[in-house]
């Protein structure tokens, strides 16, 4: 989800899963797969980049600060939220594996586009 504040500043929030694979210890004990979900918050240009290029299922590398905040829910119970405020993001999913961009009238097939190199700024990633 990307929101734009009254000042025009973009803020993106989304969940990100990290998974430890299952493995077996030397003594034969099996340790199951473990997945944790993290709340990611990106600001400004990083949020705009995520809005344009990040899709569900993409692999990301995110560096940032862990922040915990609290709020009172509707019943007056204090709740805590832990978020990662991203300072740096790298997309790890190969471009070929990402969903295709919406078709444009002048768009050619990927094979034809590869045969005719074209400097299209919308195809360039900003990082």
What string gives the helices and strands in order?
EEEEEHEEH
Radius of gyration: 20 Å
- At the first level of CATH, the class of one domain is Mainly Beta
Summed up, the helix count is: 2
Here the CATH topology of one domain equals: OB fold (Dihydrolipoamide Acetyltransferase, E2P)
**Global morphology:** flat
- What is the terminal-to-terminal distance? 21 Å
Q: Helices and strands: which structural class?
A: mainly beta
Helix content: 10-25%
The largest pleated sheet is described as:
5 strands, mixed
Low-confidence stretches: 102-127
- pLDDT averaged over residues: 81
The oligomeric state is: single chain
Percentage beta strand: 35-45%
> What order do the strands of the largest sheet run in, or round the barrel if closed?
1-2-5-7-6
> Using DSSP, what is the number of strands?
7
Q: Do you know the CATH architecture of one domain?
A: Beta Barrel
């Amino acid at each position: 989800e990307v929101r734009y504040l009254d000042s025009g500043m973009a803020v993106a929030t989304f969940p990100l899963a990290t998974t430890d694979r299952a493995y077996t210890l030397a003594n034969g004990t099996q340790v199951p797969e473990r997945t944790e979900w993290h709340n990611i918050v990106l600001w400004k240009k990083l949020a705009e980049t995520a809005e344009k290029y990040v899709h569900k299922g993409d692999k990301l590398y995110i560096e940032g600060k862990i922040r915990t905040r609290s709020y009172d829910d509707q019943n007056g119970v204090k709740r805590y939220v832990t978020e990662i405020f991203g300072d740096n993001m790298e997309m790890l999913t190969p471009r070929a594996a990402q969903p295709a961009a919406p078709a444009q009238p002048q768009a050619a097939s990927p094979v034809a586009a590869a045969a005719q190199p074209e400097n299209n700024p919308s195809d360039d990633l900003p990082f």
